[in-house]
């Protein structure tokens, strides 16, 4: 199925579903995402998502069930089971207002942290698969290995080599009982009902059981790389602790728990950024160079000392 055909048919599905929900639809369609691994369209107050072609039904279904079961933490789908669209699984969702990328001062760090803490404290059902954080990091590194050679590739791969096997998706995670989001960033929050309802987490593709510190790793890595101001990191960490989040101790130094996931997310982000820059045949920008520099620092430290990365 071509990308154009998929987008066209998904748009029709979104419109039909939106019209089935109301007799007074304020019609209007927009494409929110169109990538090989996900295509998302909106019609009025309804969103349709075509998941990656390789998405297993047996894994997506319990993830949808978790979102249905936890409507105060995760945006619940409109239907508990996905529909089929050629070789893709499709899910339908109510529209929520996303975080405004043009207003960083209004970033809902406290809301994100509180939702994560509540998610991590929720018992996981036995049918949930492992969260996909380490698997996605490994995929990013494999894509970098397959890309054209570049001087920045070596420090990224050297940093990857310092990680334990579980963080490289080469062994089971040490925690297999905690419910995790798997891919937390500010783009994974929306207000529902739109436009000013409470914040909820979205995107269940990576949801599952695993190491909860992985969900704190992206902001931790940004802070460690100098890309997230200290006050914003403190707001996030303090809110997570105040909500009883189990990923880090309730006080004291959080980095023994965060170090490995933060290093893994640094490598993943650097690998993705470098791969995109190579595909576009352009030089690395300032943020991308900062990520590669952070990988160089990680790779230069003996594994037994990598707990000092964030310092």
Distance between the termini: 49 Å
Question: What's the helix-strand series?
Answer: HEEEHEEEHHHEEEEHHHH
Count of separate DSSP helical elements: 9
Q: Number of DSSP strands?
A: 10
Low-confidence stretches: 304-311
Most strands sheet: 5 strands, antiparallel
**What is the radius of gyration computed over CA atoms, rounded to a whole number of angstroms?**
20 Å
Could you tell me the strand content as a percent range? 5-15%
Q: Give the helix/strand class.
A: alpha+beta
* Shape verdict: globular
Major beta sheet, strand line-up: 1-2-3-5-4
Mean pLDDT: 94
Helix content: 40-55%
Structural account:
The chain has 9 helices and 10 strands. It has 311 residues and is α+β, with helices and mostly antiparallel strands. Strands 1-2-3-5-4 form a 5-stranded antiparallel β-sheet, with helices on one face. A 3-stranded antiparallel β-sheet has the order 6-8-9, covered by helices on one side. A two-stranded antiparallel ribbon has the order 7-10. Strand 1 (29-35) and strand 2 form a beta hairpin. Mean pLDDT is 94; it is low at 304-311.
Question: TL;DR of this structure?
Answer:
It is built from nine helices and ten strands. The chain has 311 residues and is of the alpha+beta class. It is globular and about 60 Å long.
